[in-house]
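Section 5.1 Outputs to date
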Amino acid sequence: MNHQLSNTHIEFYQKNGYLIVDKFLDDRELAVWREAVDEAVAARKNNRLPYNTAKIPAKAQGEAVFQQRINLWMDHPGVRRLMFDDRIGKMAADLEGVDGIRIWHDQALIKHPWANPTTWHQDNTKWSFSSEHAITIWVALDNVTLQNGCMFFLPGSHKARLKDHPAAGNRVGAMFETYPELGGLEPAPVVLRAGGCSFHNGLMVHAAHANMTPYPRRAFTCAYMPNGSTFNGTSNVLPDSTLESLQIGDVLDDDDQNPLIYSRRQAERIC
């Protein structure tokens, strides 16, 4: 795994809100990731989540943009091993300059042939915690091209303070109607070879092309939150049983739901 980050990498990420890592996985590792994710998606069948939650229907319907299966680490040992790799946790912590990293949720994102585009949006505004240091890794399991649904980032947009987030529906440019100043930013396409990855901040404004090919485009992602993040009242992917016990301001530190995968303090003690 290509997990070493230089100061140049970190500075680029913190300025632009994203980083592309070519050859993140070697061929053997890529085969392991593909096998684990394919098995987990098949086993999950039509269930988007492994539990019930008030916000997201358990049964997937439509999926015109992509097939999404969330928190596969909870019910597939192979995916769990991949997601608990502290080398990835350290990368996330180093890029965001935080002491500890917890899993928010993983997800398989499969853009099937001819699938629709993903509209411009931010991630963290939909999640159950609010942080300027949320971060996501996005791993390409297939080659990702301009034709089959690559992502686009608006460099530096993670520093904008966007308060309103209108429902985009199927309007790709809805974000720019509310924030016309973002329309002056030049989008950066995220073209990746299989085994490459990108990291992006949870407030990065991003989108993805339609898949204009007869082949699926598979990716596996994991969103992370800084250790110590607190509940903001949004249910998102939290199970109903967890929501019943939470109050706004409670620390999200349940290792069964949001496991700690990297702690700088623990790593320093071991060294």
